Amino acid sequence: GVLLVIFEARPDALPQIASLALRSGNGLLLKGGKEATHSNAALHKVIVDAIGPSLGPDLIALVTSREEIESLLALDDVVDLVIPRGSNALVSHIKRNTRIPVLGHADGICHVYVDEEADLDTALRILLDAKTDYPAACNAVEKVLVHRSWADKGGLQTITEALQKAGVKVHVGDLKSSLPDLPAAPAARHEYSALAVTLEVVDSMEAAIDHIHKYGSAHTDCIVTKNGERAEAFLRGVDSACVFHNASTRFADGFRFGLGAEVGISTSRIHARGPVGVEGLLTTKWVLRGGGHIVAKDTGVKFTHRPLSSDDSARGEAEPQQGGRRRQDGGGRCAVM
Question: Where is the composition biased (Basic and acidic residues) (predicted)?
Answer without folding.
Answer: 308-318
